[in-house]
Each structure stands twice: as structure tokens, then as C-alpha cells.
Amino acid sequence: MVGTEEERLAEPISPLIHLRYTVSQPVMAAFMAGGVAGAVSRTVVSPLERLKILYQVQSVGREEYKMSVGKGLAKMWREEGWRGLMRGNGANCLRIVPYSAVQFGSYNFYKRFVESSPGADLSPLRRLVCGAAAGITSVATTYPLDIVRTRLSIQSASFAVLGEAQRKALPGMWATMVTMYKTEGGFRALYRGFVPTIAGVAPYASTSDSLASTVADSHPQVGLNFMTYESVRKYFTPEGEKNPSAVRKLAAGAVSGAVAQTCTYPLDVLRRRFQINTMSGIGYRYKSIWDAVSIIVSQEGYRGLYKGIVPNLLKVAPSMASSWLSFEMTRDFLVGLREENA
Predict the structure, then answer these.
(1) d(Cα 300, Cα 239) in Å, to the nearest integer?
(2) Which of 161, 180, 250, 270 has a Cα-to-Cα distance from 209 of 20 to 30 A?
(3) In terms of DSSP H, where are the helices of 156-218?
(4) Is the full-model pTM beyond 0.90?
(5) For 82, which DSSP code?
(6) Contact 264/220 with Cβ under 8 angstroms?
(7) Partners of 201 in the β-ladder
(8) DSSP symbols for 14-31
């Protein structure tokens, strides 16, 4: 029997077993689960996300979408059908998969440098720092896709300044990116609005530990999100148990997302405005962040910095909840493959 055992151990590992072992590693599992979580969450709330963007880019004199959330969704459906509700979601999913994967994976990577011991709990401040770093990393790698997603969301909207011909001539994702590069300033055009974006991502990401993936969308926001999620998750975990139930995880994700996004929302409005700053027909021509803030406040009041907050909050619960749940389920499944290999 000893010889048989030795022969078995000497046999080469099959590619399938090697693959299962690779994806079951904690960092790789978090990376892949983050991508799944991002795609799921973005698709679930795509209609609300697009409506939020249309609200955000409306300034004085542009009131085609000055209506309730229900009427806004009905308007998109009536004018553009199902494709209108999902406009830009393809680019968003293409962006959010690597964005979320990089965010979750890098968060787990950065944690290694501040943990007192492997697997040790982090203080809120250290979560904030790791989450912010993860948010900046993910935004920097995928930002061009985000600005293209914004342009695609607006192109077919019934804004009078766009004109009927412009709304019907809808270039695809890559064509939009190439056009921006050629006509709006080259590489810098693809990163317009990057500064307010990273200013908003960091706090958001730090609100959660497992979320190293969704943010959805800015750094301080990311940091705040990681930090809040872990604190709420602990509160929702029954005494004597290691993890909360799926419902409690959903609630923790929703709470952390709402807190983070509300705190950093004005930065998201600035990001969208700058992303279309040079867009033909609807550009704002802001000279700087402070110039944009002063113009928005003087012309639209402080409420202008929170345009679209209602659909944004409405999408937080389903977005963050589905993101956290799909992330943890996918991660647990992948990590479980390691135990099966043992």
C-alpha cells in the first residue's frame, strides 16, 4: 500500500486540479468574486443608474427630465423601450467587472501590509486607508470606460440641445472612445473628471472589508464603504456566530452603501458634469472644480449638488445588497474548492 500511495503522490497534478487550487486562493477568489459582484449589481440597477446620470447633468434651462423617478423611468421606456433602460449597461459591466475585481482583490492585498497578524481584524482607520487605496487603484485602471458609459447614457436622451439627428446617430462604445481621443484632447479627454472621482471613491471603499469590489465608483467613498460595512456586519452578526445570515449581509451592504454614497454624492455630480464638459451640444465648459461648484451653487443652489440623489438612494439597497451577497457567495464557493482539493 505504501508503494501505491507513493506512486499516487508522484503523479502529475491535472490542469483542472491546478486551476481549482489557483482560483481557491484567498486573493484570487476575492478578485474573481469582485468581478461577478460588480456585474450583477450594475445590471440589477441599470435603469436607475441611467436616470440618475440624466438628472445629474441637467442644469438651468435643461428640464426635460425634471420629474419623479417613476415618470422618468416611464419616459425612458416610452421613448427608447427596453434598450433605453439598459443604455450604457454593456460598457458599465465591461468596466465594473475589472473595476470590482481590482477593488476587492487590491483591498485584500493592501490589508496584508497593515494587519498585525494574518486574518486579524483591522481598525476603522486602517480599513479606511486600505479601502481608499483599493478604490484609487480600481478607478485608475478603468476610468476611460466610465466616462464612455456616461456619454452613452446621454447620447439617446431627449435633451433638446442634442437635436434629433445627434440622438439617432449613436456610436458604440469603442467609437465613442476613439472620437473623444481624436477630438477632445487625446489621452487627457479619457480621464476628464478623474480628480473628483478619486476624491469620492476613497471614503466609499473604506466602508467595507469584503466589498473590496463594488464601489462602485469613487475612493473616499470606497474607503468609507469598507469601514462602514465591516462595522455594520459585526453588529448584525449574532453572538457566538462567525458570519451573519444572507439577509443580514444584504442589510449591512445596503446601509454601508447608503451612508458612503450620501456623504460623497456632490463629488459624483461633479464627476458626471466634467465627463461631458466638452461634449458637443451639452458641455458645461467648467474651468476647474471650484469653478464648477461656484457655478452650480449660484445657478442651481446647493440642491444642484444633489441632483439625482433620490434614484441613487433607491438603487443603493438592491445594488449593494446584491453586490455583497453575490461577492460572498462566489468567494465562499471558490475558497471551498481548496478544501475539496485537500
Answers:
(1) 49
(2) 270
(3) 164-168, 173-183, 194-205
(4) no
(5) H
(6) yes
(7) 220
(8) PHHHHHHHHHTSHHHHHH
